Q: What sequence folds into this?
């Protein structure tokens, strides 16, 4: 989604200012603070996140009438499985703080709409396992990993909690399985909410597909390497060699 939004940023610019980490690294202080809060649950960390949000949002250049489109998974906090996290418990307080802070920065009549992309729980857990296997801390096999996260895939409950906290603003869940055949993939769902003119929508182009998880065998191999206690540079090099060997097809488009 973020690649597609960034790729089409110039076309969207007269209606929407697009903010992602790669498009505007200035948001990184806010996203890092959000991730820190997700691990600590410390109100002081949440207050620091709000302070960084206020600075970043206040510095975004916007033309009159231009609206703001922001995409970052970091505002959900660290993913379950990191540290002691078993769910996205920090998402609701972080986004509630975001709405409050943005309202203070932009004015009390500011409106919001939240889109959360999800996957079906089994596929999501596999993807989660893959992502964490690329780091050095995961040493559980998949079954043990999944057993630690029995409620992590309950995205509907998470969204409902957020709806209560930021009402009356809408919260939409969209399953990635349902958008894989759309021209722009998951970006189409956020563009639906943006209510773009048809002639502008027709000009937007797809970005290469990323975040596709390799086979479970590669994740298991990465975890086996994590158990060996290798030096960081050696571990990184071995994983990269395995990843390159596993890449046999050019990227799809999305």
A:
């Amino acid at each position: 989604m973020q690649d597609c939004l960034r790729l089409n940023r110039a076309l969207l610019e007269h209606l929407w200012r697009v903010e992602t980490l790669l498009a505007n690294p200035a948001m990184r202080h806010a996203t890092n603070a959000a991730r820190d809060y997700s691990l600590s649950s410390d109100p002081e960390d949440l207050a620091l996140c709000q302070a960084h949000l206020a600075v970043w949002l206040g510095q975004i250049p916007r033309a009159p009438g231009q609206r703001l489109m922001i995409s970052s998974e970091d505002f959900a906090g660290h993913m379950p499985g990191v540290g002691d996290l078993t769910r996205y418990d920090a998402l609701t307080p972080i986004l509630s703080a975001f709405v409050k802070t943005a309202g203070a920065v932009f004015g009390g009549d500011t409106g919001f709409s939240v889109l959360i992309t999800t996957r079906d729980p089994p596929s999501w857990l596999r993807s989660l396992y893959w992502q964490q296997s690329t780091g050095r801390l995961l040493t559980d096999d998949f079954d043990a990993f999944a057993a630690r996260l029995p409620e992590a895939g309950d995205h509907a409950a998470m969204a409902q909690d957020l709806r209560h906290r930021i009402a009356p603003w809408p919260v939409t869940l969209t399953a990635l399985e349902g958008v894989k055949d759309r021209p722009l993939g998951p970006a189409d769902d956020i563009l639906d909410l943006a209510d773009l003119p048809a002639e502008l929508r027709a000009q937007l182009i797809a970005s290469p597909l990323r975040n596709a998880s390799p086979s479970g065998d590669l994740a298991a191999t990465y975890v086996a390497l994590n158990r060996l206690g290798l030096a960081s540079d050696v571990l990184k090099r071995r994983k990269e060699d395995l990843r390159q060997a596993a890449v046999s097809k050019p990227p799809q488009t999305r």
Observations:
- The first strand starts at residue 16 and ends at 19.
